[in-house]
Design goal:
With about 325 residues, the protein is an alpha/beta fold. The protein has two domains: about 130 residues, ATPase, nucleotide binding domain (Nucleotidyltransferase, domain 5), CATH 3.30.420; about 170 residues, Nucleotidyltransferase, domain 5 (2-Layer Sandwich). It contains nine helices and ten strands. Strands 3-2-1-4-5 form a five-stranded mixed sheet, sandwiched between helices. Helix 4 packs antiparallel against helix 7, helix 5 crosses helix 7 and helix 7 packs parallel to helix 8. It is globular. The relative contact order is 0.18. It binds 5'-O-[(R)-(carboxyoxy)(hydroxy)phosphoryl]adenosine and zinc ion. 5'-O-[(R)-(carboxyoxy)(hydroxy)phosphoryl]adenosine (KG4) binds next to helix 4 and helix 5. The site of 5'-O-[(R)-(carboxyoxy)(hydroxy)phosphoryl]adenosine has 18 residues, from helix 4 and helix 5. It comes from Spirosoma montaniterrae. Belongs to the KAE1 / TsaD family. Keywords: Acyltransferase, Cytoplasm, Iron, Metal-binding, Transferase, tRNA processing.
Length: about 325
């Protein structure tokens, strides 16, 4: 079975080929155009997808050494994501499936982030818990099977990736700021400054309060010392990261306790964060969890995870009609 998969939900145009259970290529074209605007501009994202999609798919097929005639199915991200961006991938995938006369498979982007854990060993066993943390989502998911997932907790406002990116913006860092906070935090003291973690009942999260707290903190300090951010950047980044990671960890521990599940995975763009990776690993040692952390290239958006999810759907006989349209707000 050979599957070509396309991911175009946000600002990465990606194509991957999965052949006989192995990822053979995973090409990602990142759109740098958004950096100067401090966030993803949907219209520019769609145009960039349109430019990138053909060369990216061709390259994925060439690198995998799989000719088009040997493909068994075409997979694409149906949602959630930006409508204009999703439309480019969906239309391309439909046309390709039609032209090659092979089945089409729709994939839920958030499900795919979780199924990225099955690309290579060690693979989690069912049931496991996954903390999915990205630029648009923060979810605690109980995973009972490859296509059987239940959200048991989620953010009520901003996603944690958004909290990272918005904090970075307040610090004058370019978009996306999450990876930069991670980098500067390495040289800082995580306990230098304290930010409120807020109270959220049950397994839900809230990240809008901390963003406001950081805004006032920076305003007050730069009033006294205009060079405050430059002089203390590492400590500020380390403290912000520490707070966000602790907020995630508190709920993850609670979810593990309440469900009795000790197979714990993290997924999504923010799972590339070194502070989170370390904290989850350490909690695993303390609490007897088996921890699963994806390789960096499978944390942020990529089509390999879409191909992986598509393989499970192919095996389950879940194919998609040509009449389907993208779903910007698709639920898990
Ligand atoms: O999963 P993803 O690539 O796209 C979405 O589906 O949203 O996640 C992107 C998010 C961005 O908010 C980005 O800042 C964040 O992941 N991110 C990080 C790191 N790498 C990516 N946040 C903190 N530390 C990182 N190392
Ligand atoms: Zn994503």
């Amino acid at each position: 079975m050979n599957i070509v998969a396309i991911e175009s939900s946000c600002d990465e145009t990606s194509a991957a080929v999965l052949a006989n259970g192995q990822i053979r290529s995973n090409i990602i074209a990142t759109q740098l155009i958004h950096e100067q605007y401090g966030g993803v501009v949907p219209e520019l994202a769609s145009r960039a997808h349109q430019q990138h999609i053909l060369p990216v798919v061709d390259r994925a097929l060439a690198d995998a050494g799989i000719p088009k005639r040997d493909l068994s199915a075409v997979a694409f991200t149906r949602g959630p994501g930006l409508l204009g961006s999703l439309l480019v991938g969906a239309s391309f995938a439909k046309a390709m499936a039609l032209g090659l006369n092979i089945p089409l498979i729709e994939v839920n982007h958030m499900q795919a982030h979780i199924l990225a854990h099955f690309i290579e060993a060690p693979r989690p066993a069912f049931p496991f818990l996954c903390l999915t943390v990205s630029g648009g989502h923060t979810q605690l998911v109980r995973v009972d099977g490859p296509l059987t997932m239940t959200v048991i907790g989620q953010t009520q406002d901003d996603a944690v990736g958004e909290a990272f990116d918005k904090s970075a913006k307040l610090l004058g860092l370019p978009y996306p700021g999450g990876p930069l906070i991670d980098r500067y935090a390495k040289d800082g003291n995580p306990l230098a400054y304290r930010f409120p973690m807020g109270e959220m009942p049950g397994l839900d999260f809230s990240f809008s309060g901390i963003k406001t707290a950081i805004m006032y903190f920076l305003r007050d300090n730069t009033k006294q010392n205009p060079d405050f951010i430059n002089q203390h950047l590492a400590n500020i980044c380390a403290s912000i990261q520490h707070t966000l990671v602790q907020m995630l960890l508190t709920k993850l521990k609670r979810a593990a306790r309440e469900t009795g599940i000790s197979q714990i995975a993290i997924a999504g763009g923010v799972s590339a964060n070194s502070g989170l990776r370390m904290a989850v690993t350490q909690a695993g040692h303390e609490l007897g969890w088996t921890v699963f952390i994806p390789r960096f290239e499978y944390c942020t958006d990529n089509a390999a995870m879409i191909a992986m999810a598509a393989q499970f759907k192919y095996e389950a006989g879940e194919f998609t009609d040509q009449a389907i349209s993208p779903m910007p707000r698709m639920e898990l």
